[in-house]
Amino acid sequence: MSAIRVAIAGSTGSIGTQALDVLAAEPGSFELVAIGATGRQPEVLIEQARTYRPAIVAVSDESAAAAIIDALPGVDVRVGPEAMPSLAADADVVVNGVVGFAGLSVTLATLAAGRRLALANKESLIAGGPVVQQVRRTPGAELVPVDSEHGAIHQCLRATDNRERVARLVLTASGGPFRGRSSAELANVTVADALAHPTWSMGPKITVDSSTLMNKGLEVIEAYELFGTPAGEAGYGIGFDEIDVVVHPQSIVHSMVEFTDASTIAQLSVPDMRLPIGYALAWPDRITTPFGRIDWSQLGRLDFEAPDHTTFPCLGLAYEAGRIGGTAPAWLNAANEIAVAAFLDGRIAWGDISRVISATLELHDGAGANDAADIIAADTEARRLATSCLIAFAPPVGAPL
Ligand code: MG
Predict the structure, then answer these.
(1) How far is the centre of ligand 1, averaged over its atoms, from the C-alpha of 152 (Å)?
(2) Residue 2 pLDDT more than 90?
């Protein structure tokens, strides 16, 4: 069997570098044909290109391109906003590891090209849901999630041949670094506190999302888009009432599917993103490299508890936006990106992240979306409103948060 041709969008980020680890461990199975990144870490991108020798390197940030072109003679260096979406034409699988809404163009281009999308960029599916569902019907297009929970559900769903026998999806959440704490105890947490995730190694944006449980909220919408009602032939008739979240601090059970006979299938592994990345790359086959195995003699116990919606209101906000549908999830995502960036910059407190999102969603205009332009317009408008909401929460100049 010939090697699967892989392109990695967002190669210098956490998902991208771990995807390169998987490819390096399985040289006979995969061929890396292209990598792409913003170019804001030019030395990392150049080093990756020299080590892994893809034929194509995409750089979305034009100001970073000159140094990269100079450093890589003989390589097809593509520059500009269309560079990363163009990679789908040359690959069998595109890993979308771009951070945030910026990944939408890669998601749409890959599915429209009829390729397999290994999707780590959940924001593009959440914000762009109505449009992604259209291009997902392109012949040859496949969407395999690179999110540990959805990768788990994807595996569990293979336990039935009858889509109507799926009753519930149960997403597990580690609970993040602030599990078990009250709102009062979290009033003065720092950026460093929020970035200290107990079980997963991830980029800063998703790690903050994990601390607020917004990551799980986004994943509820992601699960609905991937496996729910609107996906037509890809769907399992699941609505938001059939998607549960349970806190599981050990991050060993990555999610579960309950069937109509109340039998539940779970997927377990050590928490390492290279497993869901490898699953999405190799599907319907599997990679042969185990990146860490469960030691049952040491595992001890697996705990489960209900999420604390009072301390972590972002989870409820996500359910609310998901149920509204249309562009509400795009608004939720945009407001969250603005709020998290402001928190990481020290401009608002951790507890204000949910307040900015809630205040922005209050202003949602109830619009739907027919094409990518509608999604981008919704995203732009929500960012504008969220940015103006920030002012209400920013401390006076010089005051501590
Ligand atoms: Mg996840």
Answers:
(1) 10
(2) no
